[in-house]
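hey
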């Protein structure tokens, strides 16, 4: 997405809104099988090719996606933290740190200690992060995003909703994402959901 956005004409007209989506809300806070193992369960014989495609698209953009290290966990608190970051104008920074921690470093993004460290690196104040993790702030916002995704028929991530249109996969080459965004600019103000 970053590479696509760098090439979009009228970039200042593109508004990105990060939305919460839990792939596995029933997961616990203790990591289990890796993402690659989970994908094999979802996609069967197609899993190796689909995983290779995701990794190749990432590598082409300089992203190291270690799906053999990433372990799905309950991301509810991580999503609440993203809402706090958005309220402070730090959504992109928080998402970058969470995604790198999960996909590249294989960190447990359900662990409060990991979340505190990542939030601090994104620029959030320790006291605010501690209060969020101890309470239920932004819980309803995460649930509302889940309902919104269901209304759109979204079942996986990354998914993009551009100017209220139908969701599309975010796992596409930057040139195609750029084309989609620029098409959205001709019909309205595109955004990511």
């Amino acid at each position: 997405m970053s590479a696509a956005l760098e090439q979009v004409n009228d970039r200042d007209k593109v508004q990105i809104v990060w939305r919460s989506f839990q792939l596995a809300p029933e997961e616990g806070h203790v990591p289990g099988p890796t993402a690659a193992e989970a994908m094999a369960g979802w996609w069967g014989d197609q899993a190796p090719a689909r995983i290779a495609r995701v990794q190749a698209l990432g590598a082409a953009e300089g992203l190291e996606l270690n799906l053999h290290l990433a372990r799905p966990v309950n991301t509810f608190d991580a999503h609440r933290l993203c809402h706090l970051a958005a309220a402070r104008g730090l959504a992109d920074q928080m998402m970058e740190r969470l995604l790198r921690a999960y996909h590249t470093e294989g960190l447990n993004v359900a662990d409060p200690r990991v979340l505190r460290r990542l939030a601090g690196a994104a620029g959030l104040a320790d006291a605010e992060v501690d209060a969020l993790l101890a309470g239920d702030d932004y819980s309803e916002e995460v649930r509302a995003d889940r309902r919104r995704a269901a209304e759109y028929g979204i079942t996986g991530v990354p998914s993009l909703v551009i100017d209220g249109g139908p969701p599309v996969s975010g796992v596409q080459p930057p040139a195609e994402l750029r084309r989609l965004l620029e098409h959205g600019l001709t019909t309205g103000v595109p955004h990511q959901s």
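The first helix runs from residue 2 to 7. Residues 189-193 have pLDDT under 50 and may be disordered.
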